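Consider this pair:
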Amino acid sequence: MRRWTIGLGASLLALSAQAGVLEGTVTDPRGKALANAVVAANAARDVRNEQGEIVRHIARTDRRGRFRLSDLPAGSYGVTATDRRYGPAFIPDVLIDKGSTVTSRRLTMAAAATVVTGEVGDRHGTLPAGSYLLIGRMSQASGDVFFADLSAGRYALALSPGNYVLIARAPGWTSAQHQLALPGGHAPARLVMHRVRGEKPALAAELLAMEARDQELRQRLAAAPDCAAIMAEMSSVDAQHALRIKAILAGHGWPDVEAVGAQASHAMWILVQHAPPELLKQSLPAMKKAAQDGELPWSSVALSIDRDLVYDGKKQLYGSQLVRNNAGKLAPGPVEDESRLDERRASVGLEPIADYLRRFDTQ
């Protein structure tokens, strides 16, 4: 799956004299000028200002549908336009040279669109300062990322058919993501962001250290799958981790993001996946509660639910647990009501099963 990130970009220099300009128009599907559409130019590399903040190049069209984006550092851009009434428009690979002005670019909105709604905020429903919402279309074109309006923490997006990832971000907060496959079943999504620093740093450090040990052993075993010594060591470490997980759940409940941060909360989930089946089953109610509170992605909980069902010899709900078929390729194990599999996957933010399986094509 292609992931959309903002960060790790180049530093912004004082380029006003050397920067380029992009001008153009946005029209509706019938060719009529579209006012108040959001136009964004997305560079292949992110640019930051002196305060380390990411510079976003965004403009709105005037009543004649015209837009002007200035101070664009030289480079290649994907240019997008969004409006609540129509599907987004996109022009890839628009080249901006130093000091140049590119004109007469026209973006025509798509007619067929599905309106997607939802909310963005912290665990209490408050929208953090500086919040913004990205919509990444999973395509091979660079810069195919749209910016959306957030009004009082709510959004309404008109999206044409395709696979998307919604990403909510704010300075000093972890990002929140939700995947969509359109057309298809989708419920309003609540994207919850959390402060980067947790309230229990000691517990966070412990969970991250346990996860690092867990992953290091599994990487060694992948490189030497028949090594009995590594298998024995991994079994011993997993047993130690299981005891500690039980103690953490008894003393803290599920370690949420506010307490330990996003990475450590995810580490807890990883450790539970490698715990004995009975501990996974015992942990599921806490995981579901954490997901309901916006502390854990439902997509992660769905994988745990499937794993628990497989342990019990039952059919999966989301098709996440794979087995090799007669052709030697990975495929989902037995699934309940396969005709609605993608619908269930979409309801918890998982991509269509065909896209999921493509990740394993080379394995």
Remarks:
- Confidence is low (pLDDT under 50) at residues 1-17.
- The CA atoms of residues 211 and 271 lie 6 Å apart.
- The longest helix spans residues 228-252.
- The helical segments are 201-223, 228-252, 257-260, 262-273, 277-292, 298-311, 341-347, 353-358.
